[in-house]
Amino acid sequence: MIDHVSVAVRDLTRSGAFYDAILQPLGFQRLAEHEHRIGYGAKYPEFWINHRPDMAAAPEDSGHHVCLRAATRDAVKSFYAAAVIHGGRGDGEPKDRQATVTAYFGAFIRDPDGNKIEALALPIKNQPADKPILPNP
After folding, report:
1. Signed CA dihedral, 135, 68, 5, 42: sign only
2. By the 8 A CB rule, do 76 and 120 touch?
């Protein structure tokens, strides 16, 4: 149903480097680059960052976040670690979580502009931590 999403960033160069690092463990890479936006994905751009130099940081209580699928628990951990190393901050460390419909392993981060991004891996019974939980589409 959803084809792609985008978030606004104040510094496209800084944010491009940040998203290059955090999206790599999830199997996304930079696939498109234009003057005011960068697109990431596995096969086509599914996640975009759009340059908005005059915007304020995203408010903590905006109520929005973007959740991206990870193939493994280790990918979630790498996503989180990369965010902290590359100028973002943790907003929910990697751990088992209970959602409305299912349990999952996930982590939340804030990018340098305050956008809340989550990575999650859905469980399969008896699945080793280093093996894919679900293949990326």
Report:
1. negative
2. yes
Report residue 68: phi and psi, to 5°: -115, 140
9 falls within a domain: yes
Number of domain units in the chain: 1
Owning domain of residue 19: 5-52+65-121
pLDDT digits (tens, 9 = 90+) for 16-62: 999 999 999 999 999 999 999 999 999 999 999 999 999 999 988 88
Task: Tell me, yes or no, whether 26 lies in a domain.
Answer: yes
Residue 117's φ and ψ, nearest 5 degrees, are -125, 135
In-domain check, residue 59:
no
Question: Rounded to an integer, what distance in angstroms lies between the CA atom of residue 115 and that of residue 9?
Answer: 8
Contacts of 80 (CB under 8 A, 6+ apart): 90, 93, 94, 107, 109, 119
pTM for this entry: 0.88
Q: What tokens were used for 64? A: 């929005």
